[in-house]
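Quick one, tokens below. Sequence please?
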């Protein structure tokens, strides 16, 4: 699921390459890279408690990405896109 969200965000960024006033493209890039990286870091820690902690952080980043996509839609930055079930289609 984390990788799927990263790919959805990547597709959106490719469709919206110009810099925009709200800085959403940059935020979406950072957030979408952070999610799978955080999961990988948690897996590398070797202890279940640490893995759970990093998964929790990744879930927070996923919510952040969803919010950024909603904001982009609300300001008509991605008016050609629709938001369904938290994913850009």
């Amino acid at each position: 699921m984390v990788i799927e969200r990263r790919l959805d965000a990547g597709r959106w960024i490719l469709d919206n390459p110009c810099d925009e006033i709200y800085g959403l493209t940059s935020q979406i890039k950072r957030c979408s890279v952070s999610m799978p990286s955080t999961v990988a870091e948690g897996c590398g820690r070797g202890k279940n408690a640490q893995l759970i902690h990093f998964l929790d952080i990744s879930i927070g980043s996923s919510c952040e990405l969803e919010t950024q996509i909603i904001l982009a839609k609300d300001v008509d930055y991605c008016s050609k896109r629709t938001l369904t079930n938290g994913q850009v289609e």
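Residues 22 and 48 are 38 Å apart (CA to CA). The beta strands are 83-84, 87-88.
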